[in-house]
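Hi V.,

Quick status before I head out on leave. The structure for the redesign project is tokenized and pasted below; the design run finished overnight.
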């Protein structure tokens, strides 16, 4: 579709179509692409720098079968060929705040973030405003529910989540205590998609 000229009003719609409804998050102990459920075609890799480079170099087919998201600090360590294949760069909440302060002064994003999809991590109104300011292409809003890995953090709940999504000027992914089958519930509360770890990966046998 992108080879044709579209009115500017339609550009946001075209951009949104490139984002999947489900995103699987893979930590350092998740390295096999076959662990991801078949209905999930986008993965966010949170491996350490060296593990990430090895994973991407050793599994070139990963870029063919999945859309790959990596952290900004990891993206900057990749060679040009791997950077070209990355679908999106993840920005944590502190990076969002810092960029929102610096971009108006510099009039542009840092070079490494230009011409790439950006997805930010948001937990409150201020961080969403920062994501809006730097024109992120998508954001995670979390935690929707309490999770086993962070039981000390109470979830936002769907009502508060819905209020936050209304502030966002880009597709929103519900994250935190959310499963693949929660997509309809998430969409009913303003989300575009869902993301997570455990329920998005197949159990090893």
């Amino acid at each position: 579709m992108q080879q044709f000229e579209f009115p500017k009003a339609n550009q946001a719609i075209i951009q949104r179509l490139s984002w999947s409804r489900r995103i699987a998050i893979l930590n350092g102990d998740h390295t096999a692409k076959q662990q991801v459920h078949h209905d999930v075609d986008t993965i966010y890799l949170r491996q350490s720098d060296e593990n990430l480079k090895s994973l991407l170099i050793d599994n070139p087919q990963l870029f063919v079968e999945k859309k790959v998201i990596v952290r900004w600090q990891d993206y900057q360590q990749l060679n040009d060929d791997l950077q070209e294949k990355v679908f999106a760069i993840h920005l944590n909440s502190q990076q969002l705040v810092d960029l929102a302060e610096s971009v108006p002064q510099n009039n542009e994003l840092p070079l490494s973030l230009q011409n790439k999809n950006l997805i930010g991590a948001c937990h409150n109104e201020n961080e969403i405003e920062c994501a809006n300011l730097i024109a992120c292409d998508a954001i995670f809003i979390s935690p929707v529910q309490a999770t086993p890995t962070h039981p000390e953090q109470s979830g936002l709940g769907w009502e508060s989540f819905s209020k936050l999504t209304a502030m966002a000027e880009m597709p929103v992914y519900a994250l935190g205590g959310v499963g693949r089958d929660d997509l309809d519930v998430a969409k009913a509360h303003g989300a575009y998609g869902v993301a997570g770890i455990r329920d998005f990966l197949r159990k090893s046998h």
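Above is the designed sequence. The longest helix spans residues 93-106.

G. will cover questions while I'm gone.

Best,
W.
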